[in-house]
Amino acid sequence: MATDIRTAPSEWRRYWPLVLTSCIGFSFMSFMTPAAGVFMDPLANEFGWDRTQLSTGIALSALISIVLSPFVGAAIDNWGVRRIALPGLVLTSLSIAAFALASGSFLQWIVLWLIWGIFVLLVQSTLWSTAVASTFQASRGLALGLTMSGTAVAQVIAPPLSNWLIAQFGWRFAFVALGLGWGGVALILAILFLHNTGSKQRTNAIDKSSISAASTLLPGLTLAQARRSRALWTVAIATFLILTATIAVVVHQFPILIAAGVSRSNAAWMVSLSGVAGIAGKVITGSLVDRFHVRWIGGLTLASTAIAWPLLMESVASPALVIIGIMISGYAGGTKMQLCSYLTARYAGIRHYGTIFGIMTSMIALASAIGPLAAGAAYDAYGSYSPLLLTGVAISLVSGFMIFSLPGYPVWDETPHETDTVQEKNACH
What we know:
With 429 residues, this protein is mainly alpha-helical. The chain has a single domain (14-196, 221-407), classed as MFS general substrate transporter like domains (Growth Hormone, Chain: A), CATH 1.20.1250. Helices cover 78% and strands 0% of the residues. It is built from 21 helices and no strands. α1 runs antiparallel to α8 (171-193), α6 packs antiparallel against α7 (140-169) and α18 packs antiparallel against α19 (353-382). Residues 198-216 and 414-429 have low confidence and may be disordered.
């Protein structure tokens, strides 16, 4: 069939606007994480909040994702990405701008984060990865890598842009400009290019009965089979562990660099440098996993942060080593969500990808809740980020080994009506 795209060049000629849109959408969904550290000092100076208080909001918002992400994933499977994304982008933009209303009430601060946490679910990673993973086959790894580079794009742009906006116009204007400006760009692209591409069966499924029928035509595990998959459990646990440490470092990266003796302006650009390395990591990793088994690529990449994070400790205090550490950390950090989404597609298939990756996103959200809060509490208790960074070393090695231990890929029949017998065999992996 003419619409059945199988070669990488033909996929890219037809669907590159989808990848661009998903990348920008992903960057908008994720920019609050690297930006949070830049806002910490201005908010602490104005309201007298400590690092634990400043980290509590983002941690609690992550708890919402733990509970609701699987339901959002199921909604994406049922209704399509476009119907979820468009209202989600509008509501998320407004919720970010609403941070400008902060008055010094800690309860209000928490409420603002909870509102953002609810709305950002509608534009979470599951949505963008579903759009791309269900569309690309021959070049799925690279396409997902470029999509997930949105987090690295956010890391490049958000810190210096936030710092400049705060310095020139104040932190209140910065929240409004970032929310409405960044969100506006993402919304325009989504209106133009984000369609329910991929499986024709799913795209044409309008009512619930046809959706149910369509899902049986797609290659992949049933939800019951997915729950029994050792490979998927390994991916979930490894992702949870490494992202607990990674998100803690990313949220506190700006103050980590300040503690290491870097000036505020240089810290902002170093965080951006980390984001550039993250983009490179996603592109290179995406290309490699399309050619080699991800156990080699993913295992080594996750373990590499064991080298990077000790170089960011205050005791090192060497500009050259800090730059090396931030580059390695950025490169590896940029691959972790990408690896999770790719592995989910390879071991679970596309049949219930949105729902299954939604569950993965819950694990990631739990990591997002624990990591930054634990990092803030550790700093308040010890006056140093060294305990966080040293703990991250052990976590990196364990997570890398788990990915390295994954079995071979299931072989999915891309034709309709794949038998449950084949899927049961795949589920045992």
